[in-house]
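Q: Here's a chain of 136 amino acids. Please give me its 3D structure as tokens.
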Amino acid sequence: MRHIAIACGALLLLAGCATLEQKDKLREQTLDNYAAALRWGDFASAWSFVDPAVRAAHPPSPAEQARYDSVRVAEYDTQGPQQTGENTVEQTAHIRLIVKASQTAYDIVDHQTWRWDPQAKRWWLESGLPDIAPRN
């Protein structure tokens, strides 16, 4: 009986490791896919990474949407991600934007918070799309 209990415990431990490994792999894929969407300036695709509750509560205003349409992403570099909780990571992205009409460039810093959703088995961006308003 004791051997069966040990075997079951070992299987649960291995299953937990596999789940953790899968979660980490999905995080890496999600962050890479999100970065690719932003690098291509595809803010509509990037929007699909945002947590549905955040999307419902904070849809982009017409002015924000126009701003996203008016820029091109020249650079997107990240620092992180850093584990901040069992199901959360944070990373900082440095984004260089070029205004299409004037060809002027400016930089922003985007502090991202990502949350693992165990039911959906996916990572959601809780911090929303970056605020790309130029800073004066």
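Q: Can you summarize the key feature?
A: The chain has a mean pLDDT of 89.
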